[in-house]
Design a protein that fits this description.
Structural class: mainly alpha
Order of helices and strands: HEEHHHHH
Radius of gyration: 26 Å
Distance between the termini: 48 Å
Oligomer: single chain
Amino acid sequence: MKPRRERAKEKLLQDRSTPPRIGTFHCPLCHTELPVGATSCTNCDWVEGYGQEPAAFVPSSRDIAAVFLSIIPGLGHYFKGHHLMGITYFLVTFLMVFFIGAAGMVGMGFNLLLLPLWWGWVMLHAYLLPDWNRQGRLPQHLS
């Protein structure tokens, strides 16, 4: 009897050489025969869309509105449906303003430069986040 590894190799080569039956196709990773319309493989971790480029980011007017709303940090995130993240950004910014403002002159004022960098990051993050309110539902991986 042949070792398990050799039998698996022969089966893989056989699967690659035989065309799929009508109504089926081969998994692109492990070449398991799957029914047409399958979105994932039963034998490996292949899912539909594997290896494809993600969709390009196309800005909308809601993204620009989120940037302007982020003048109050977290409000842009809240506007786009990321409620917990928006509240977290608001609280973290409040704490940063309080502690950096209180210790503003300890570092000759250089630590005050952290606030504009933080605000810029919050605005950029709100701009780039997917808009859950516009979609009307949570993304598939979170539902």
